[in-house]
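Record passed on underneath.
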Amino acid sequence: MARHMTKTSFLPMFPDEMKARGWAELDVLLVSGDPYVDHPAYGTAVIGRLLEAEGYKVGIIAQPRPDVPEDFTRLGRPRLCACVAAGNVDSMIMNYTANKRRRRPEEGKGFEGTRPDRASIVYTNRLRAVFKGLPVILGGVEASMRRLAHYDYWDDAVRRSLLLDAKADMILYGMAERQVVEVVARLARGEDIRGVHDVRGTVVAVKKEEIPSETVELPSFEDVRSGAKAFNRAFALAYHESDPVRGKPVVQAHAGRYVLALPPARPLSPTELDRVYELPYVRRPHPFYDRLGGVKGFETVRWSIVAVRGCPGECHFCGLTMHQGRIVQSRSHASILREAGAMARHPDFRGTITDVGGPTANLYAAECRQWDTAGACAKKGCLMPSKCRSLKVHYDRTLALYRALRRIPGVKHVFVASGLRYDLFLDPASDEYFREVCAHHVGGQMKVAPEHTENKVLSLMNKPPFERYEEFVKKFEKVNASLNSRRYLVNYFISAHPGSRLEDAFFFSKKLQGRGMRPEQVQDFLPLPMTVAACLYHTGAHPFTGERVFVPRGETERAMQRALIQPQNPRSQGLIRRALRVLGK
């Protein structure tokens, strides 16, 4: 990449920016598979700003070309370490569709070839080559969800922990703010982090004699690679212990080496979360990207606000449970209002806050008396099969926040574009909140995720039965009738999820047609590493119950299920005829 010589308040990407700050060397180098966008929606910016606030000199190498050593060395050797993240999304998911076809770069033209497959491994190997002996630490979603032996859809095989495949010194999993500050502080004190096993939310390689007491031993990599029962047992044990309060360390042998995963880091308090999101972000891409026409998709998050983290929904196809965790963490009203006020004063702001949310927007301010003392319950869910009585959702607090945001001078619209749990709206306690969200905060469209219509499939997804969605639609229509202008539902569905046979897709299609629905938002199932659904797909059995599960695997089977769900697509017609012949319809 060419150099950019403008002095800005961005973290340095080029030597001239280091020189402008008077820096001869960095303390920490961040290497990312994403473009450098200095905005709290981008993980590298968050970690960079946090370390900067702790007093460290931080620079960023964004999307380095793997075959150009100078892309990795242009800021020099950092004093303490390099931290590597593949990006906000796993690099294989970014690069390939669910049918394993290569995608075009999400960032747009000019970014071709900038994100390698298995970016964490590639970047770590290049850093090892150019900076001999430098500690290299992995983080981000790719590392988090591959921290133990896992099924990889693209290899159709079980792979080792990414720690070993990448030859890194440590993985920081989850959102990682606590861990990165602690680990970098230890490096600054001259400590060796290899084998450190007392920092929560980290994964390290240890000797057998270094394994802490009360550690849960998982079936080895060799066992899970060769046996479905061992694979599911390893996952179930790791899943059970992935709690920041009650969880124990887990260890997994890999050919005589031991990968030790400490329990997740403790959730951030509202004060700590406020600090993270109020760091001095520029809230735009680095000026380097101006010559490339900007970063595609940035405008959708530019005027958004993260209000909440964590999700207790435990959808089995989603990675949030093993990444952000089940415990909800919410920012304070004061912090969110300060961020919104600063946005409203920005000369480029046009009056619309595009989102105030997180994984599940209508769980803002949710709390449970268990979370602080006992963690998330081991044997029951917060939302399934129905909302637990101990989970308190404070709609009055959320309404007070939305109303205060609407009163900020210069703010014309406040939208909630994040996902909303439609089943929570069936609780009469949500009536006022639901009406006000429909009236003021959905911009004409409310996004919900029924995912399927057949209850046996929904059960495997850990989603509510379809009858509850139908109840919700009735309530939505009733509220709609009282509004001045009509709102519409945008429904998200998943095709060919484990458990879905061709006849299930047929009934799925018939139910949608009966409701006059022509779904556009249909996603082909993709087994994400370290999810329940990946276990179902790989082993054909449920990791918690042992129940055998049908898995639609072949490309033709998957294509026929998708075609039945979207019959309006002209390309679906031949596949629909073929599916109907198979079904005898």
Remarks:
- Residues 466-481 form the longest helix (16 residues).
- DSSP finds 23 helices and 22 strands in the chain.
- The mean pLDDT is 94.
- The radius of gyration is 24 Å.
